[in-house]
Amino acid sequence: MNDSPADSLRQAALNYHRHPKPGKLEIRATKPLANGRDLARAYSPGVAEASLEIKANPETANHYTSRGNLVAVISNGSAVLGLGNIGALASKPVMEGKAVLFKKFANIDCFDIEVNETDPEKLADIVCALEPTFGAINLEDIKAPDCFIVEQRCRERMNIPVFHDDQHGTAIVVGAAATNALRVADKKFEDIKIVSTGGGAAGIACLNMLLKLGVKRENVWLLDIHGLVYEGRTEDMTPQKAAFAQDSAHRSLADVIPGADMFLGLSGPDVLSPDMVTKMTAQPIIFALANPTPEIMPELARAAAPDAIIATGRSDFPNQVNNVLCFPFIFRGALDVGATEINDAMQLACIQGIADLARATTSAEAAAAYQGEALTFGPDYLIPKPFDPRLSAVVSSAVAKAAMDNGVATRPIDDLQKYCESLNQNIFKSALLMRPVFDAASGNARKIVFSEGEDERVLRASQAILEETSELPILIGRPEVIQQRCERLGLDIRPDQDFSIVNPENDSRYRAYWGSYHDLMARRGVSPDLARAVMRTNTTAIGAVMVHRGEADSLICGSFGEYRWHLKYVEQILGTDALRPSGALSLMILEDGPLFIADTHVWATPTPEQIATTVMGAARHVRRFGLAPKIALCAQSQFGNTDSDTGQRMRAALAILDSRELDFSYEGEMNIDTALDAELRQRILPSNRLEGAANVLIFAHADAASGVRNILKMRADGLEVGPILMGMGNRAHIVTPAITPRGLLNMAAIAGTDVQHYG
């Protein structure tokens, strides 16, 4: 018998949590502990110095410990997801998951703490006693009204941010979604009638947040399991509910839903009927957030009101109200400025940041994570997707600024722009290293032609180029196809408005292009007929001809197809006595720093002269990134200990380099570990010319270079910038099919730099 889909999903989830090791978290040291010296610094006697510094000045705890980037997720398991009161131990997988989200989305370290305590006053005492350990507290899955008591006591007594995500995180995301829903519906907070079901912590917090956004209290109708919250009701009432009591004879949802502009559901399944939806105003806003089954299924709501704006708590429908849009980034901003609390101003700033980002052009990274979904601002896209990497910089900086403006920041940030850049560097691994390249390119309005102009990655990269650089993209492709894809992808750019197009099927320059190609190739076996055919079908050749004719400054090609096929046409058309491909250089950005690899594509088995040329080209390019080149010629042979072919060619290349007056460090031939380990290299050859670890590895065979490049990319989580085609005066670069939109943007910045900037 086959397992049901539910059984399969359950087993897959259990396997995920159990293998390869139980749980979702581990602790790793951030400092070396390899010898007695390290031990003496990490623990006794050296640790005493850090302790004494903190005793003298408590603020230095953020300098000498992890506290400034450490959050506690604390729960007693009394109201876990849709599971209810399952207890502290059973809540641990959920809290571990929350900790993982903190790390993934905001690079915040997090401990999950599950507490066997049901008394809210005692639980608050426990949480408050943890203040020396943590920079902030995230309360999670504590039942109402206990959660209100715990949060209030902790906020009163603790001098660090305390945030109950079930309340305020949900309220912030609802506030952002409502802000944009009203924009779509052309309505205002102060004018709308809201009907809400659910008197728990999240529901109350959402309503309070909507009041702060401008909703009038008299226009809010709250219902719980017992019906309308009305003046004089005593059954299951709390002070939080009583604040929304209406002076009304109505008692049911059916009584109060007519004329409602917005339904906010944080209750249970099938609470709202299609008939009720028909009694709401035109273009009703329906936030049915109960999980896993909403108060009304979206298809039923849509059938009752085709113009309805709908959000749910589920990921399989548009507009998922997901707290991960909020909590990592509000904590990130609060921690970075040393905020003593997370106040209303910071929460409102978070709302505005999230709402604004949804109205911006969708990032390529988010689009890649949600392929097939429409990510263009409108009724089905009110809030960003969690995997939009821009959330970190946009939302965290908004929160940080609000904290500073409100006077709750103990460590104000002087330069918010630099702060945003630092956040982006954590998300976009290439941002820091690419900064000198982008700066060099910023003053040049160079024209970059993309041969695969219909490719989605190229279109997204073109949008980013126009937003982040002064370069002018030219796309080769069919205008109608490019137009349609820009619209479908939610991009703002349009052909012949924001960028130029060359249509290979019908372009007024066709005669001139095939004529130029024929002039170049007439004595290399290319007839006029063949030249015409190439210019109709070969977009790489078209782009190269444009660079040759001066209509573009640089060509980027290779997002599909084989590297050397593209290289053939680049060399045919753009090669001269002075410009010849001399190697392909890949920058691999690794966790412990950058590492350059060459030659990955151009020469299968380079001669000593070609190796020497590759070395000199690599040195020029490494300096473009603000780094001093330290180049190792790598082979199986090590300083002449074997007579292998690669060793012979490397030694001959070294002799060529030694005959020149060069201003950079190089050494060879050696094994890779010797190149990267200065102590090992010193033992083997004390007189070697390199200091520290090499940052450039040059190989005598493309198989070796390509293999190292791909292993670093696939198994070491290396991010590639490149390949950079050396020797062509920055007139052409050939990427690989694995390139991302971000990778194309990086290559455009490289192509957008005048060659004189790097020799």
Task: Give the gist of this structure.
The chain is α/β, with parallel strands linked by helices. It has a 6-stranded mixed beta sheet with strand order 7-6-5-8-9-10, with helices on both faces. A 6-stranded mixed beta sheet has the order 18-17-19-16-15-20, sandwiched between helices. Helix 19 packs across helix 31 (741-751) and helix 22 packs across helix 23.
Give a written overview of the molecule:
Helix content is 44%, strand content 13%. The chain is built from 31 helices and 21 strands. The protein folds into 6 domains: 35-61, no CATH class; 66-160, Malic enzyme, N-terminal domain (Rossmann fold); 168-316, NAD(P)-binding Rossmann-like Domain (Rossmann fold); 324-427, NAD(P)-binding Rossmann-like Domain (Rossmann fold, 3-Layer(aba) Sandwich), CATH 3.40.50; 435-574, 3-Layer(aba) Sandwich (Rossmann fold); 583-727, Rossmann fold, CATH 3.40.50. The radius of gyration is 31 Å and the shape is globular. The termini are far apart. The strands form 4 sheets. It has a 6-stranded mixed β-sheet with strand order 7-6-5-8-9-10, with helices on both faces. A 6-stranded mixed β-sheet has the order 18-17-19-16-15-20, with helices on both faces. A 5-stranded parallel β-sheet has the order 13-12-11-14-21, sandwiched between helices. The protein is of the alpha/beta class and 759 residues long.
